[in-house]
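Reply to dn_fold:

You asked what the input looked like. This is it:
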Amino acid sequence: MASLPSERDEGRPDARAQLAGLIFALVLIDPEGRIAEVNHAAEDLLGTSASRLVGTRLIDRIGPIDPRVEARLGVSDEALVARDLAIRVGRREARVNLTASPLGGFPGWQVVTLSQIGHDEGGPAAGEAMLGAPAVLAHEIKNPLAAIRGAGQLAARKLPHADKKLARMITDEVDRIARLIDRMQQLGSTRPGPVDSCNPHEAIRAAVATVRAGCDEASPIEIREEFDPSLPPVLANRDALEQVLINLISNARDAAILQGGTHSGGPRREGLIIVQTRFVSGLAFSAIRNGRAVPLPIEITVSDNGAGVDAALRDHVFEPFVSSKPSGQGLGLPLVRKLVRDMNGNVSHDRDQRSGLTNFRLHLPQAPDQS
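and this is what came back:
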């Protein structure tokens, strides 16, 4: 029921501010089937600014789509709900839940919403608290880690100079894992870890080096870097960001190897991983954290040419104990989500059938300007 204006309404966000804060895409369609208005989430999903979207046809921006859905969209006085709909956005494919609602009193006008499947849209999952269980093992894990670190330091003294780099990597990774275990003890806590300005490319290169060191020479994997050199610093926890990237790149490596790097049933291809960074220029992609919108203009994408996430698991990959690997424990991606959310970021995934790539995307806040 609508309420009458009062003095208490003066500080209340207006309708436009409320729409801007939505985490799913909202598009207003006029009686001619053209876009009349979009919110920030729609700009991000459709990959361009409102000024370029307004006046164009929605179907031209997301098509081709299922002909039945396209036909129903043309009937502006009927409500429509379409789940797990494949759309095209530029060169990539996304899967969304789509709704279309007629506006009473405004014949021909519709409000269309697009909610990307696989996007980290909600709050912490009910099962996320179960991730705190490994914390009870922290003490037992740290003891052998200390022994491994000591062995790595001893090896560094005895190895030839050319091999000392590997020994240093052992001690560095043990230190990072020890810090991660400290964070795992806090997974059940609602208090996020400290964040600071950091160079995302340094974190990516450290993660890539760690994954490369564990690659099997019998299963070659190409890891391609496509970086935006002008990318500003990200506001993140460096250790957590590196761990997130190690998990995603390791998963991408396993997917490319396990699936044989095949594409649409074709011949075997070499495993390929692409790590890409970009600044989401002109868009206001954001997450709702503690009741406020947090802009997330820095995007890091980890892509692989494996067969993709099983359709039955697509909506559940960030839930604990869900895994498509025969020996997988299903804790990697839930941990990724927890660490990313602690940095006020978002993580999502999509499958581009045309290019044969599975994409995991991180959206993170920019560090404030220190000048």
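The longest helix spans residues 138-158.
Hope that clears it up.
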